[in-house]
Amino acid sequence: MYPLFGIEDEDVGEMLWVNTLSHIRKGIIGLSLFNPEANKWGQAHTQGAFVFTMWIYKNQKNKILEFEIIGENEDFRIHLDKDLLMTEGRELLRQFLIVLQTYKSSGANERGTKWFNEYSEVSDFLLKVRQIVVDKKLPRGMCLQNNLVRYTEECIEPINYPEKMQGIILSYADRYQFNKKLYKNVMGIWNEHKASLKV
Question: Residue 112 — pLDDT band, cuts 50, 70, 90?
Answer without folding.
Answer: very high
